[in-house]
Amino acid sequence: MPKMKTKSGAKKRFTISASGRIKRSHAYKRHILTKKDSKTKRQLRGVTEVHHSDKAMVRAMLPYA
């Protein structure tokens, strides 16, 4: 059986931690930042965990992660 392919978009967006958690960055932090207040931009920093209802879908897109 041939190898499964990893989805390129998912490879760029998600990282798997050593404990198996799936990490992602926040949306709305790329452009048009002048009209967003500092509090919003500060809260969008860093990474967060993928919601548990989406974990199976992300795992399917990253078969070897």
From TrEMBL:
List the Gene Ontology MF annotations in alphabetical order.
structural constituent of ribosome
Give the top-rank taxon of the lineage listed in the UniProt record for this protein.
Bacteria
Q: Which UniProt keywords apply?
A: Ribonucleoprotein, Ribosomal protein
Q: Does the keyword tRNA-binding apply?
A: no
Gene Ontology CC annotation, any one: cytosolic large ribosomal subunit
Q: Which InterPro entries match?
A: Ribosomal_bL35 (IPR001706), Ribosomal_bL35-like (IPR021137), Ribosomal_bL35_CS (IPR018265), Ribosomal_bL35_sf (IPR037229)
Signal peptide span per the entry?
A: none
Region annotated Disordered sits at 1-21
What SUPFAM superfamilies does the entry give?
A: L35p-like (SSF143034)
Q: Specify one Pfam family.
A: Ribosomal_L35p
GO biological process assignments: translation
What segments bear the compositional bias annotation Basic residues? 1-14
| Ribosomal protein recorded as keyword | yes
Q: Which family does it belong to?
A: Belongs to the bacterial ribosomal protein bL35 family.
Quote the protein name from its UniProt record. Large ribosomal subunit protein bL35
Origin organism of this chain?
A: Candidatus Accumulibacter phosphatis
Gene giving rise to this polypeptide: rpmI
